[in-house]
């Protein structure tokens, strides 16, 4: 029932309420055009990948995570319920995000007639191979390079199952959602020898471009890029900044979006069959933080689980009015905030997604 999502769409400052009939029309046209969705990135869109990494210390498959998920299951999502990947999938007619690649039974799942995509995202990961890793011997996360390789494995299985032409046609209509970059920026910021923003952000763009070109080489054509939100305003950053947002981290998030805007323009100019939507989650989130009275959120500073100073564990305190909190834990949005972000990415104007929004991307 798309109607229940509409109140959240009106919450972003300056974004008008969208008519129910319009959204239903968008959903119907988009759903017909999207055979599958593939999701890459970090914890903002991870649905349990790290559960399958025995040595990972970045997991969420325990309470209070999942308290609002069906049957209160802690699936590995860093959320009280669904995350942004789930809501985007729902808007395109899926039940929720596809399952993690590491949970699949190899080619068997891909050969199924109703194969509708895979989620490769891994909490703690980044564009750089070193981001989120604590040891060279053990896998703490699945970095973007490895996620792209996993996508190529899916491509090979699709070719083996459908033939090259049909596999490429299938992927050309599918959507590739990518949400990554925050962990690289925060990791560099707190490293012993941080690289200056003017050098680091362009370096990230070079790596991002390499990943995108590799995806293009194995059939990816439609990209929904979710840029970095105002990471400087996460409860984890406010703790070390006397309750204020970190301007330096937020400046890097904005610089990342600008760099990605240039990158995507150039890449699509060079590759005429590439379509994309670049989502500006900074512009979606920051107005809510600056003017919470214009939204349905009453707390935009503290974490619902752990009260903004402690990690979310089964013993942590838990707020009762979770739909009123912007942040679930020290780093991640609540289900309500994820619903808001996905809604605006789906139907928002050029302030929030450019050159088209995510629903228009499906039709491109």
TrEMBL record:
Keywords noted in UniProt: Hydrolase, Lipid degradation, Lipid metabolism, Signal
Top-level lineage group: Eukaryota
Transmembrane portions of the chain: none
Protein's UniProt keywords contain Metal-binding: no
Pfam families in the record: Lipase_GDSL
SUPFAM superfamilies linked: SGNH hydrolase
The protein's name in its UniProt record: GDSL esterase/lipase
Species, as recorded: Gossypium raimondii
């Amino acid at each position: 029932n798309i109607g229940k999502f509409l109140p959240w769409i009106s919450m972003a400052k300056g974004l008008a309420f969208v008519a129910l009939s319009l959204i239903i029309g968008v959903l119907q046209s988009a759903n017909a055009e999207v055979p599958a969705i593939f999701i890459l990135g970090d914890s903002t869109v991870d649905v349990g990948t790290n559960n399958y990494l025995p040595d990972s210390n970045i997991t969420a498959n325990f309470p209070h995570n999942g308290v609002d998920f069906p049957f209160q299951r802690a699936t590995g999502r860093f959320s009280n319920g669904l995350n942004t990947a789930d809501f985007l999938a729902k808007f395109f007619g899926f039940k929720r995000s596809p399952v993690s690649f590491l949970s699949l039974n190899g080619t068997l799942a891909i050969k199924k007639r109703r194969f509708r995509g895979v989620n490769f995202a891994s909490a703690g990961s980044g564009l750089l191979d070193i981001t989120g890793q604590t040891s060279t011997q053990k896998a703490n996360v699945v970095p973007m390079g490895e996620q792209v390789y996993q996508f190529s494995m899916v491509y090979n299985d699709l070719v083996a199952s459908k033939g090259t032409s049909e596999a490429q046609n299938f992927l050309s209509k599918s959507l590739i959602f990518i949400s990554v970059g925050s962990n690289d920026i925060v990791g560099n910021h707190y490293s012993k020898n941080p690289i200056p923003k003017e050098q680091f952000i362009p370096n990230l763009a070079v790596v991002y471009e390499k990943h995108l070109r590799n995806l293009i080489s194995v059939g990816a054509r439609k990209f929904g890029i979710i840029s970095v939100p105002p990471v400087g305003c996460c409860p984890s950053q406010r703790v070390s900044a006397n309750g204020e947002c970190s301007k330096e981290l937020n400046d890097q998030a904005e610089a990342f979006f600008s760099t990605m805007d240039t990158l995507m323009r150039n890449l699509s100019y060079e590759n005429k069959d590439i379509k994309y939507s670049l989502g500006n989650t900074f512009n979606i989130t920051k107005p809510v933080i600056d003017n919470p009275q214009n939204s349905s959120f009453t707390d935009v500073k503290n974490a619902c689980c752990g009260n903004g100073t402690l990690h979310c564990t089964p013993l942590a305190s838990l707020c009762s009015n979770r739909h009123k909190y912007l942040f679930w834990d020290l780093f991640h949005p609540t289900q309500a905030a994820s619903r808001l972000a996905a809604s605006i990415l789906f139907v928002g104007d050029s302030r929030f997604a450019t050159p088209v929004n995510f629903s228009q991307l499906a039709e491109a």
